[in-house]
Design goal:
This protein has 718 residues and is an alpha/beta fold. Helix 8 (113-128) packs parallel to helix 9 (159-173), helix 18 crosses helix 23 and helix 19 packs across helix 23. Bound molecules: alpha-D-glucopyranose (GLC).
Length: 718
């Protein structure tokens, strides 16, 4: 009994398996710098990379695909190299490994952190079965500018939703592999939405908007952070001791490690803050960037600086220990190959379909006919009659995978056309016409599309962006439908056949014409392998849409950046006052606000009560509201609670999301919903740049989105 207990304790104590201090003491300077070196492979390690592993000059590789390719390299590391230190194997498993789930922006529309945790867990399990032990996800950058392509990879514009999603994805991934919160920090503030551009972020906005999701990831135990390409007011994130040392380690107590993004260490030269590769490496390493991805500067250029004491050896040792501790935490010293079995494919696809269904946002759903004696809303569709399915994305197997789909295969994708056809009985005629390409200028395909629409009771148009029109290096200077898709939409609408517009896109689009002329609009983002089934589930009402926008949809590009949690200004918009903050030519309001989404039923709110009415900073205020399903079918509402700090020592946003809850109600059912807000979460950075919760009146709004809701207030007392 005692022996087995001791054995269990011994095996369970990873530190006993490897005394890292003694290992560090045996390492040469070259081997230490080797642990800080990370290179990309091209599916499998090159002979040169295998030689670097043998020489102890690589701490990890990424883009080595499959256990058949990771195992031989790991074997070299743990048997041939002098110190037998195992390797990290990284990969960008952003929203799925082979089974591709909705893009993160789409998944954030679910307002369901449990769903995000589930898909991250599944993706991590699948990736681990293919030799991966470290993903460069979740991307947690807040994005307020839809021109920026990487808005697709994050959770939108709100730090509260973004923080919950970040923590959920870290928990999910790290059940099997290491996660990486990226890109630290402020990447989403790229000026003019232009990729990799400079940012001008005040420290207050950095603290209150861009940093919270990273803090949430750190608090969730994320193993690593990735330092970003961008500068912050002239100080590049990958050479920024305030970020990667002061905030991350001294304030937050982060014990993991920081890896640079791609060649961002070398790019310090382009930024103009380093005059040589060695200087760039010194700047990054001493700022707190532990691992140098892809530029090979640490391993090639820093030994001389260490020997001349331009870099203290303790800086190198600290970075090396963080990497070694990470490898120990991952169990690599004990089990370097980490053989794993992937979840069964049907289970993965069922998760993909469920979460995709929750990610769909119904933006508009009105009757297609005209006149008073009119008809029911256009959706859900009946499964009878002739249905036209039109558009370049209607039967496209590649684009639903989105901009970064790792090992995802187009062959795995169920298209919208396939999803619709699998839903309807044989007697129902489905007529397909592509109508136009994604970006081409030809309208030659319009005739067939018009003919299809004319013979149908409804035309489902599947339009939007190519997957690679968002994601990295994919900023757009316009937010319309590419190519001649808008012309196709207008031509089909002109036939008089009711149109259901299904959108596939990685960012908010400008939808002015569609919003005014098309009776039904469904935002599906890029939903992954189950895109077609999930979309058909919603179109035919087998799933009642419950998605809500995690990002604002502007009316026109000229409004951008446009986000809900803005400050009030000294002259808040007033249509009756010329001298107020607004435009001459468009309203200041968005076309679709943050948090917006419709259902096939309706919900009513009543009886909002707050208690206590007077609270201290250490208290929690509970809002209780009655939500009623006032429609004719079961549905899920995302009850949202926003707060406004009426008067502060610093101007505060007009609304900030502080709680939400998905609530499923049967027709006619009413339920008292309680949402809690701890006053300590109402902090902001005061005039002295320290976090503070100030006494005063707080308004509370509880409702279906950031532009509506019941209002009450409470007092925060000293
Ligand atoms: C890319 C991206 C980053 C990714 C890394 C490795 O440039 O910015 O998100 O994780 O390189 O692929």
């Amino acid at each position: 009994m005692l022996r087995s207990l001791l054995l269990t304790l011994l095996l369970a104590t990873p530190a006993a398996a490897q005394n890292l201090d003694s290992l560090l003491a045996r390492m040469t300077l070259e081997e230490k710098l080797g642990q800080l070196n990370l290179l990309s492979a091209n599916g499998q390690a090159s002979p040169q990379q295998m030689q670097l592993v043998r020489a102890g000059k690589l701490g990890g590789l990424f883009n080595v695909i499959g256990a058949e390719n990771t195992t031989p390299v790991q074997r070299i590391a743990v048997t041939d190299s002098r110190l037998k230190i195992p390797l990290l194997f990284g990969l960008d498993v952003i929203h799925g490994y082979r089974t591709i789930f909705p893009i993160p922006l789409g998944e954030a529309s679910s307002f369901d952190p449990d769903a995000a945790e589930a898909t991250a867990r599944a993706a991590g399990q699948e990736a681990a079965a293919f030799g991966i032990n470290w993903t460069y996800a979740p991307m947690v950058d807040i994005a307020r500018d839809p021109r920026w392509g990487r808005i697709a990879e994050g959770s939108g514009e709100d730090p509260y939703l973004g923080s919950l999603m970040a923590a959920a994805r870290v928990r999910g991934f790290q059940q099997s592999i290491f996660a990486t919160a990226k890109h630290f920090a402020g990447y989403g503030a790229a000026e003019a939405g232009r990729e990799y551009n400079e940012t001008e972020i005040s420290q207050r906005t950095m603290r209150e908007v861009y940093l919270p999701p990273f803090k949430a990831a750190v608090d969730a135990g994320v193993a690593s952070l990735m330092s970003a390409f961008n500068d912050i007011a002239g100080v590049p994130a990958s050479g920024n001791a305030w970020l990667t040392d002061t905030v991350l380690r001294r304030e937050w107590g982060f014990k993991g490690f920081v890896v640079s993004d791609w060649t961002s260490v070398a790019e310090l030269i382009n930024h103009g803050v380093a005059g040589s590769q060695a200087e760039a490496g010194r700047r990054a390493l001493t700022a707190g960037v532990d691992m140098d991805m892809q530029s090979s500067i640490y391993v090639d250029s820093l030994a001389a600086l260490v020997r001349s004491n331009r870099i203290p050896i303790r800086v190198v040792d600290s970075a090396v220990m963080r990497i070694l501790r990470a490898k120990q935490r991952l169990g690599l010293f004990r089990d370097p190959y980490r053989a794993r079995t992937a979840p069964a494919n049907p289970e993965l696809r069922a998760t993909a379909r469920r979460v995709a269904g929750e990610s769909i946002v119904l933006l508009k759903n009105e009757p297609a006919g005209r006149g008073a004696a009119c008809c029911a809303p256009t959706l859900p569709l009946a499964k009878s009659g002739t249905i036209a399915v039109i558009g370049p994305l209607a039967d496209n197997k590649e684009e639903p995978l989105g901009p970064w789909h790792t090992q995802g295969q187009a062959a795995d994708v169920v298209t919208v056309l396939q999803g619709i056809m699998s839903k309807v009985p044989a007697a129902t005629q489905v007529v397909y016409a592509q109508g136009a390409g994604m970006e081409d200028t030809s309208t030659a395909g319009f005739a067939a599309a018009l003919a299809a629409a004319r013979q149908a009771k409804v035309a489902v148009l599947v339009l939007g962006e190519r997957g690679d029109m968002s994601g990295e290096a994919a900023s757009r200077s316009s937010l319309g439908l590419p190519g001649v898709q808008q012309e196709l939409l207008e031509a089909i609408a002109a036939t008089g056949t009711p149109v259901v517009l299904v959108l596939m896109n990685g960012r908010p689009l400008i939808l002015e014409w569609a919003s005014d002329h098309v009776p039904a609009i469904v935002e599906t983002w890029f939903l992954g392998v189950e895109a077609g089934n999930a979309t058909a589930d919603v179109l035919f009402g087998d799933v009642n849409p419950s998605g809500r926008l995690p990002v604002t949809f502007p009316r026109v590009l000229g409004q951008v950046p446009l986000y809900y949690n803005h400050r009030n200004t000294g002259r808040p918009p007033d249509v009756h006052n010329k001298y107020s903050s607004k435009y001459l030519d468009v309203p200041v309001t968005p076309r679709y606000p943050f948090g917006f989404g419709l259902s096939y039923t309706t919900f009513a709110y009543g009886n909002l009560k707050l208690s206590p009415a007077r609270a201290r900073a250490s208290d929690t205020v509970t809002a209780i509201v009655t939500v009623t399903n006032s429609g004719s079918r079961e549905g899920t509402e995302v009850v949202q609670l926003y707060v406004r700090d009426e008067v502060g020592s610093v101007s505060r946003p007009v609304r900030e999301l502080k709680a939400f809850r998905r609530v499923t109600l049967k027709p006619g059912e009413s339920r008292a919903i309680d949402l809690r807000v701890a006053l300590r979460d109402l902090w902001f950075y005061g005039l002295d740049m320290k976090p503070v919760v100030e006494p005063g009146t707080f308004r509370v709004y509880v409702g279906p989105n950031s532009a509506e809701g019941l209002e009450a207030s409470f007092e925060c007392i000293p």
